[in-house]
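Hi P.,

Sorry for the delay on this. The queue was packed all week, but I finally got your sequence through. Input first:
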Amino acid sequence: QVQLVESGGGLVQPGGSLRLSCAASGSIFTIYRMGWYRQAPGLQRELVATVNSNGNTNYADSVKGRFTIARDNAKNTVYLQMNSLKPEDTAVYYCNADIKTTNWVRLTYWGQGTQVTVSS
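Then the structure:
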């Protein structure tokens, strides 16, 4: 069994910063791609950023230059540093990971979500 646990969300003023963390635990053999998605009220879940096992990253156009994704393979953790936050960044942020378990089953796992609210 695998769990993804997120932390770091909260309320921040426009122009401020937040850092999200997501730690994977359980019967993990290998973690492939890790990423962050978000879902605002009334909208579909959208990709924010991903990082694969060799460190290559991909960002949504709306966050390029403001957000940075990074991973610590020793800790099975992925981070999202969010700078210059805008009200339109308000959403529930979900961690996502492509994991092969010790039973050699490869699945995509999701965290429970963490609320980010950007407001004055």
